[in-house]
Amino acid sequence: MKAETLSKKIWFDGKVMDLADARIPLLTHSLFYGSGVFEGIRCYFTPKGPAVFRLKDHIHHLFHSAKIMGMTIPYSENDIMIAIINLIKQNNYNECYIRPIIFYGEKMDLLPTDDTPIHFAIATWQWGKYLPRETVTVKVSPYIRMSSNLSDMTAKISGNYANSILALLDAKRDGFEKALFLDENGYIAEGAGENIFFVKDKVLYTPNENAILSGFTRASIMRIANDLGYEVIEKNISIDEIPTFTEAFFTGTASEVNAISKINEYILNNKEEGPIVKEIKLAYQHAVHGEDERYLSWLNYVALS
Ligand SMILES: Cc1ncc(COP(=O)(O)O)c(C=O)c1O
Q: How far apart are the first and last CA of the chain?
């Protein structure tokens, strides 16, 4: 997709403009060194108009990532939430994907200093289903998830995603759609841009937080699954356990809830969406679309903000 068709109006350093007018110099620190920090957020249509799912949590996490990258931001978290809501209004979207990024500007020394420019941009675009089918095939990556000794994995730092891109390219070369990382101890960690859950005997299992980016979709699914009566256990999961699970699924803002049909040679979900994934996916859709009272506090209504 061409960049200009992705987004109509964007927000760049405090101003709303056409995407085509947002230009950055070639010698941009974050372009060379991956020092930008970003977040992926979705806005959904609800009975009260468009609403952004877990906006406050995402923006708080964005500022956490920026702090880790040593960035001083001239806006408050509230300023950014307002900018996002206004952008959705200006673009007249019912539903959209929202991608804020904070990055270091023109500077070629590795070490950012007080005089290194910091830029803040927010793009929004209509990104429907992230994946074409209900289920995905997954290859266990030969690359491990970067450990917390290698980078700060609680932050969404652009450079951390080189690890994910390499894993996806490898999976694709071998005919799989998605990649699954193990951690440095050989336990299952997460996907390239998703968290993972497994199902056995009506219990959900998910890797604990030490080797993953602990996503807001994961947290929402844990709460929803509990409310549906499922026990959710966070634990170390080894790949030898995969054949003992009946279902598996990824969670993430972009992919939402996505059933996994196969991990390496192991078939899961009977190649289709299993019944528990289906139930949880439906409950998640009700939550994000403002159709379940229990989860309304996760929504920021555009019209009311
Ligand atoms: C590495 C990684 N893990 C997990 C997630 C899921 O996080 P969330 O549910 O907050 O989108 C993401 C999202 O981008 C990710 O990049």
A: 31
Helix 216-227 and helix 55-68: axis angle, to 10°?
A: 140
CATH of domain 3-125: 3.30.470.10
User: What is the DSSP-derived secondary structure letter of residue 204?
Assistant: E
Distance CA 251, CA 217 (A): 6
Rounded to whole angstroms, the Cα distance separating 161 from 119 reads: 20
- pTM value is 0.95
Check if 156 is active-site.
yes
Confidence of residue 132 (pLDDT cuts 50, 70, 90): low
258's enclosing H/E stretch is: strand 256-263
Give me the residues paired with residue 205 across strands.
198, 233
For ligand 1, pick from 43, 55, 127, 195 the residue to mutate: most ligand atoms within 8 Å of CB: 195
Q: What phi and psi values does residue 50 have, to the nearest 5 degrees?
A: -65, 145
- Report the topology of domain 135-288: D-amino Acid Aminotransferase; Chain A, domain 2 (3.20.10)
pLDDT tens by residue, 48-82: 999 999 999 999 999 999 999 999 999 999 999 99
DSSP state of 166: H
Atom of ligand 1 nearest to the CA of 160: 1
Residue with tokens 């290698």: 150
